[in-house]
Amino acid sequence: MNATTLPRLNLSTFPRHALLEGPTPIQPLSRLSARLGGASIYVKRDDLNGLGGGGNKLRKLEFLIGEALATGADTIITVGARQSNHARLTAAAAARMGLKCELVLTRTVPRFDSDYLENGNILLDALFDVRVHDLSGSANALQFAEDRASELRAQGRKVYVCPLGGSSAVGCLGYADCAAEILAQSTQAGLSFDRIVVPNGSGGMQAGLLAGFAALGVKTPVIAAYTVLGDAERARSITLDKANQTVRLINENLHVEADAISIDGEQLGPGYGIPTDGMREAVRLLASTEGLLLDPVYGGKAFAGLVKDVTSGKYAAGENILFIMTGGLPGLFAYRSEF
Ligand SMILES: Cc1ncc(COP(=O)(O)O)c(C=O)c1O
């Protein structure tokens, strides 16, 4: 395969609003790979997407904002945990578009210190000047969002409700497109990735990548995820479902098989947003060997899994592995006491 014979994804029928500056770089982690021995590790810098502090959710938001604008929305509401990166980036994208935005944030994570409650993403939400609804950990955020949308619609507003993590099938198209971007970049660099490693929260990033490679019709690298939200079984069924919804949006004859879903549950630890020793070590390791910053809730746990599986030999020596850096840097400030 070369640049001219490269299969392409045509997503031009889906409304989309540009929020990215272009392809994000792929960089080798030479020092870290030498330190661990075995596989060659690369990173794709989705943390460098610029708007609102950056991160993976901007890829989904290009399509979600596109859909919102196509439906004539003047207001966007989304849900998440108090330190949600998706909520922060939705707020930033709404500010950029001149849309009103409300965030329905739950206290799902049992952390009560002022850094967690007031710093990091929540500080940035306030700067984007959005309304935050502060709900208890047991509240049904999506139901609250739908009720609030009805209230606003009764006042004449046009409201678009965006699901957890932006992971509707339309949102996942952002990562289907990223699969095409990775294929183009790796082909141009003469590289072939055996494995792409990601954190799995709402499952949309993994699902979108699987859908994208299926739609491109090329041999799919293993898309290896570490779940950071639910147990592995639950994450697997949610991700398979989203991957199939997404690929069918692109081509209704395509299908993602269940055995394509690789999810490891070992890095979750006691639960979503609860730090583990592996996460703390992974954040320090990548910072001190490569000067790169992982977040404590998603990338830190997934990278801990990657380090473990490279050093144990589960990921074979000689493999080329691409880890997607998903952003979430503000989370480090919310978890200051962990470091
Ligand atoms: C920084 C970061 N990385 C990874 C993820 C996981 O992506 P997904 O929800 O698509 O599985 C999220 C989701 O919120 C995130 O904020």
Structure, explained:
- This protein is α/β, with parallel strands linked by helices.
- The protein has 2 domains: 26-55 and 168-338, Rossmann fold (3-Layer(aba) Sandwich), CATH 3.40.50; 57-166, Rossmann fold.
- Helices cover 42% and strands 16% of the residues.
- It has helices at 30-36, 57-70, 85-97, 114-118, 121-127, 141-154, 169-188, 204-216, 232-250, 277-290, 299-311, 330-334; strands spanning 26-28, 40-45, 75-81, 100-107, 131-136, 159-162, 195-200, 222-227, 262-264, 320-325.
- The chain has a 6-stranded mixed beta sheet with strand order 1-2-10-7-8-9, sandwiched between helices.
- Helix 9 links the parallel strand 8 and strand 9 (262-264).
- Helix 10 (277-290) packs across helix 11.
- The radius of gyration is 19 Å and the shape is globular.
- The structure holds pyridoxal-5'-phosphate.
- The site of pyridoxal-5'-phosphate has 19 residues, from helix 3, strand 7 and helix 8.
- Pyridoxal-5'-phosphate binds at residues 55-56, 85-86, 165, 167, 199-205, 295, 298-299, 326-328.
